[in-house]
Amino acid sequence: MALRGMTWGRGLAIAALAALSACAEGGAGTGAPAPTAAPAAPVAAGPAGTRLDGRYAGRGDLTASRSSVCGPQQINRSLVVANGEGRLVIDQARNDIAVGPVSADGIVTLHSPTGRGTTVAGRIENGVFTGEQRGTQCTRSLSLRKQS
Predict the structure, then answer these.
(1) Do 132 and 60 meet the contact criterion of CB atoms below 8 Å apart?
(2) pTM over cut 0.85
(3) What is the phi-psi region of residue 62: left when phi exceeds 0, alpha when psi lies from -120 to 50, beta otherwise?
(4) What's the pLDDT band for 67 if we cut at 50, 70, 90?
(5) Strands, DSSP E only, in the chain?
(6) What is the mean pLDDT of residues 125-139?
(7) Residue 109, CB half-sphere, CA atoms under 13 Å: how many?
(8) What's the pLDDT score for residue 49?
(9) How far, in Å, are 51, 57, 112, 131 from residue 127 at the CA level?
(10) What Cα–Cα distance (Å) separates residue 118 from each residue in 36, 112, 143?
């Protein structure tokens, strides 16, 4: 039974290769030239640039809590963006931060390098970062306005 399945699989692979080969030659026996791919769009080199760079400040509102360590309902937060990288201080006393890329279109994806499991995800639009900070115990919605 295993041998029969193996033979069937090999036959399928050979048929797939034959089909790909026919496509590469311009089609199944048509003699037409193979289509060429359109040139790729240029990819922006380097960081997101200075358009989003700056300090965003505002508050984080507690939306879910599994522990009293989450602190007050509202807490001040500050996100700093420089050259396509973001940094948000979670807990100054424990040196807990979240860092990561900020794309040219404003997508923010930060993670805690300290292993505490904190993530920050959201988007910067019209000078406002809107997103969510998630940890193992707490979740906060964030609304931070560009200060500089």
Answers:
(1) no
(2) no
(3) beta
(4) confident
(5) 54-65, 74-82, 85-91, 96-101, 107-111, 119-125, 128-134, 138-146
(6) 95
(7) 5
(8) 57
(9) 10, 11, 24, 13
(10) 46, 5, 17
